[in-house]
Amino acid sequence: xxxxxxxxxxxxxxxxxxxxxxxxxxxxxxxxxxxxxxxxxxxxxxxxxxxxxxxxxxxxxxxxxxxxxxxxxxxxxxxxxxxxxxxxxxxxxxxxxxxxxxxxxxxxxxxxxxxxxxxxxxxxxxxxxxxxxxxxxxxxxxxxxxxxxxxxxxxxxxxxxxxxxxxxxxxxxxxxxxxxxxxxxxxxxxxxxxxxxxxxxxxxxxxxxxxxxxxxxxxxx
Length: 221
What we know:
By secondary structure, the chain is an alpha+beta fold. The chain folds into 2 domains: 21-76, no CATH class; 83-217, no CATH class. Helices cover 27% and strands 22% of the residues. It is built from 4 helices and 8 strands; from the N terminus they run βββαβββαβαβα. The strands form 2 sheets. A 5-stranded antiparallel β-sheet has the order 7-6-5-4-8. Strands 1-2-3 form a 3-stranded antiparallel β-sheet, with no helix packed on it. Residues 19-26 and 42-52 have low confidence and may be disordered.
């Protein structure tokens, strides 16, 4: 290492054990006393501190250049006019039984609990990963019962579990698209947006809200 300031913790004049290490794409240094800090906090001049390992320096420069290029592309893109975005809405029922603590005496008659969600197939997002996901808006819960259960018992179990608080979620496109292709009407249904005059001319959020309210009032499954 060369031309670095002393350690701010112990004052060692020549303390640095690592100066060419990449930590989340940022070089850092570590003293024998255990103190670590970004290299930029301690460099006295602009000399090359990666001279022990030029290959790491090149990798760091390449990564930084690519990040700068991607950032410039993102900044140059304009936000889409959501009024012009066509909505391809679907309602899907997903097995959410694992999200419930079902009492042992209630488990036998409950085949599964489904969460019913609304999503727009034309809008995908990335949840801190490369895989694309749909944003699912929760509509209601549905309990699938075993055969032969009385109406009174069904109502009791629905009151106990079907109205538990539920939340919006994300689901991978790779999970939902096969369900769309299979087109099983018991688990997924396309919303007929072209037949709804109330959706014309409104903002995207208003249109999705109107669809949500319609789906809540008129259950698909």
